[in-house]
Write a structure and sequence with these properties.
By secondary structure, this protein is mainly β. It has one domain: Jelly Rolls (Sandwich), CATH 2.60.120.340. Strands 1, 3, 6, 7 and 9 form a five-stranded antiparallel beta sheet that branches. A four-stranded antiparallel beta sheet has the order 2-8-4-5, with no helix packed on it. It is globular, with a radius of gyration of 14 Å. The N and C termini lie close together (6 Å).
Length: 113
């Protein structure tokens, strides 16, 4: 099994729809080990983070929010994941900002294939 640390980023995340920042590749398990949200604007914003699962049955069939309406003060950053989040092949990590062009995302992951 190959283990590879990676960084996935999203600049100026959408404020109109949840934006995919990362999709776990086929035949790959992924561990999210960190997520930093940065507010580039002069105003407070909020952010949503959702895991959208590829599975339609079983114990992980539900799409879930791991953060909803979390406040990020102006010109500040927030480390949003304090543990680890496991993802399976095809699962998506999505982010939504309350303000256009205000939010950047840095996602640290470990891919296991």
């Amino acid at each position: 099994m190959a283990e590879t640390f990676k960084l996935r980023t999203g600049a100026s995340v959408s404020n109109s729809a949840l934006e995919p920042i990362y999709t776990a590749p086929a035949s790959t398990s992924t561990v999210v080990i960190g997520c930093v949200l940065t507010n580039k604007s002069a105003s407070n914003i909020t952010a949503d983070i959702q895991i959208v699962t590829a599975s339609t049955t079983g114990e992980n069939q539900d799409d879930v929010y791991i953060a909803k309406g979390v406040l990020i003060p102006s010109s500040d950053s927030l480390e949003i994941i304090e543990g680890k989040v496991a993802m399976e092949a095809g699962d998506k990590f999505k982010v939504l900002s309350s303000a256009a062009t205000a939010l950047d995302v840095a996602l640290s992951i470990l891919e296991i294939s």
